[in-house]
Amino acid sequence: MDKEGHSLPSASCADGRKRRVCYYYDPGIANVDYGADHHMVPRRVAMAHALVEKYGLLADMERLRVRPATKAELRAFHDDAYVRLLHDITQDADHRQGDAEILETARACGIGVPDPGETAAYDNPVIDGLWDYCVRYAGGSLAAARALASGTSDIAINWSGGMHHACQGRASGFCYVNDIVLAIQELLKHFERVLYVDIDVHHGDGVEEHFKRESRVMTVSFHRYGEDRPGGEKFFPGTGTAEDVGEGDGKYYTLNVPMDAHMDDESYQHLFRPIMHKVMEKFVPDAVVLQCGADSLYGDRLGNFRLSVKGHAGCVSYLRSFNVPLLLLGGGGYTINHVASCWCYETAVAVGKEEGISDEIPFHGYEHYYRDQGYKLHFTVPKTNGNKIDVAAMEKIKQDALMNLAMLKPPPTTQRHRRPSKRHGIDVNALFDHHSKNSKEKDKKSKKYRREEDDPMERLHRLCCEADRYSFFTELGKRKACEVANTTFSNPK
Question: What are the Histone deacetylase domain coordinates in residue numbering (predicted)?
Answer without folding.
Answer: 38-348
